[in-house]
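Lab meeting, item 3. Inverse folding demo.
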């Protein structure tokens, strides 16, 4: 394999310090980085390498706590890193990158920058002859803010990179639990054979955050929770739950199956938006025991009123044979009661209850991404008792990922994603068609909300969203898991 150079644009940013450099460090600590890897940290601060490294170490230590590098580990890791001072809007600065790059090595460009810079960076890299060797590009969401704008971003990327060299990150795909969902579904016959409308009553996907919009008011107010979270993270989780078995773990096979699901999502339009979508916006309340402001009272707020949703609940349907009649309830919001990301697979009740009473307790599979990553299955068994002949109780089978592992730590998603990008494996990255089809569905839903005047309903900060979100599921005789 050719040696790899990793070039991180935006090396002074939040993502770099919180996720990218710690992930690379953990890989180095575990001996998983290629020995000949070189890392160029690019930022516009006028500092030298030593200043960059000492600032980086301090920030990483703040985020990593007990697992922060020791002096010896840091010395080894720091040797991989070079610092290049460059303004990404200034074509002249790309010469410094050109001087550092080596055509005999793979160049992996990682854009941890504001999305508005994706296109200019690609243009300048090409214009200044930095794309002459084997090049790959890695970038984060958001890829556009609509179908139209995502096509523009993808179109720019396609001018300089073929699809096999573009690594679009949805970091949820790098999470251990999400990869375990694939193993659970496709390596266990009994799960696989019970994975359809004959056995499953409904699916819930919840991504709840405790935080508000964290100083991003002017950005967020133009975007809202649907574009920020549903189009990417919730859509990816839905696809992994709903897709047919791919014929291999090759990126193409997985992407093909995911795209089929996005295309099979029933359109939410003016005729059905009222029964399928609830939008909410947090008002004053309490968050983790402290008073919390409403959305329009947040620091940086530019208006007294806004129709941007900080919460959305959707009842979606995948119109295919496997999922006919099985609703997928999606819910995501800011300033919610707890930080939770989980998928619930709710099985159907058995057709006839021989135990009497209210003992028909259907199984539930809980796939939890946070907190406490893991997978649990609720099972029904007999309670041991001589007084009661056959009383039932629910037990939880717990799949602890650390069992049988030589590592006590669950790796961060970025560790897996870096390894795969370095090794040229795209299976956990998102393809162009998935992104664009997902935008097509979201755009239609947003248009329907606008046309039908589906306005935001207030909910108290620290709650589970507006009452209408409870009604959305309860009118079907079901309830949210939390
Ligand atoms: P930040 O704003 O913290 O970092 C952006 C970086 O880009 C900074 O280092 C900034 O430098 C640099 N930059 C901006 N303009 C220029 C320029 N003209 N020349 C040189 N450097 C420049 O953003 P984040 O780290 O939070 O996010 C980076 C990307 O990752 C975004 O696309 C974001 O959407 C995405 N993302 C981030 C997540 C996160 O957890 N942070 C999660 C998911 C996605 P300077 O400090 O000098 O301004």
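The presenter then showed the designed sequence:
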């Amino acid at each position: 394999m050719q040696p790899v150079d990793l070039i991180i644009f935006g090396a002074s940013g939040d993502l770099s310090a919180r996720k990218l450099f710690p992930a690379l460090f953990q890989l180095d600590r575990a001996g998983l980085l290629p020995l000949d890897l070189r890392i160029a940290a690019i930022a516009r601060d006028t500092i030298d390498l030593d200043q960059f490294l000492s600032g980086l170490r301090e920030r990483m230590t703040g985020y990593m706590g007990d697992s922060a590098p020791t002096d010896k580990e840091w010395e080894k890791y720091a040797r991989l890193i070079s610092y290049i001072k460059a303004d990404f809007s200034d074509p002249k600065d790309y010469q410094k990158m050109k001087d550092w790059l080596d055509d005999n090595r793979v160049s992996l460009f990682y854009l941890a920058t504001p999305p508005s810079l994706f296109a200019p960076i690609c243009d300048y890299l090409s214009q200044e002859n930095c794309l002459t060797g084997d090049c790959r590009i890695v970038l984060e969401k958001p890829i556009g803010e609509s179908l139209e704008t995502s096509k523009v971003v993808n179109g720019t990327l396609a001018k300089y990179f073929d699809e096999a060299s573009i690594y679009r990150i949805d970091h949820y795909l790098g999470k251990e639990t999400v990869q375990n969902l694939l193993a659970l579904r496709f390596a266990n016959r009994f799960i696989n054979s019970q994975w359809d409308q004959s056995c499953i009553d409904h699916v819930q996907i919840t991504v709840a955050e405790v935080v508000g919009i964290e100083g991003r008011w002017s950005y967020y107010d133009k975007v809202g929770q649907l574009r920020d979270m549903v189009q990417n993270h919730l859509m990816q989780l839905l696809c992994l739950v709903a897709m047919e078995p791919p014929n291999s773990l090759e990126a193409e096979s997985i992407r093909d199956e995911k795209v089929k699901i996005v295309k099979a999502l029933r359109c939410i339009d003016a005729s059905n938006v009222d029964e399928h979508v609830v939008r909410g916006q947090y008002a004053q309340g309490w968050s983790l025991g402290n008073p919390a402001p409403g959305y329009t009272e947040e620091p940086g707020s530019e208006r007294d009123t806004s129709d941007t949703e900080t919460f959305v609940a959707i009842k979606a349907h995948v119109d295919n044979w496997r999922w006919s009649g099985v609703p997928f309830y999606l819910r995501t919001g800011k300033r919610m009661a707890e930080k939770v990301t989980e998928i619930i697979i709710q099985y159907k009740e058995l057709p006839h209850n021989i135990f009497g009473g209210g003992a028909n307790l259907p199984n539930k599979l809980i796939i939890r991404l946070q907190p406490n990553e893991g997978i649990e299955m609720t099972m029904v068994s007999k309670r041991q008792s001589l007084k009661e002949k056959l009383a039932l109780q629910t037990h939880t089978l717990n799949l602890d990922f650390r069992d049988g592992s030589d590592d006590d730590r669950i790796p961060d998603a970025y560790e897996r994603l870096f390894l795969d990008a370095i090794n040229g494996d795209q299976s956990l990255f998102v393809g162009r068609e998935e992104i664009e089809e997902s935008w097509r569905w979201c755009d239609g839903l947003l248009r329907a909300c606008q046309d039908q005047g589906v306005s935001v309903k207030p909910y108290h900060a620290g709650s589970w969203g507006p009452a209408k979100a409870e009604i959305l599921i309860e009118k079907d005789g079901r309830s949210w898991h939390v």
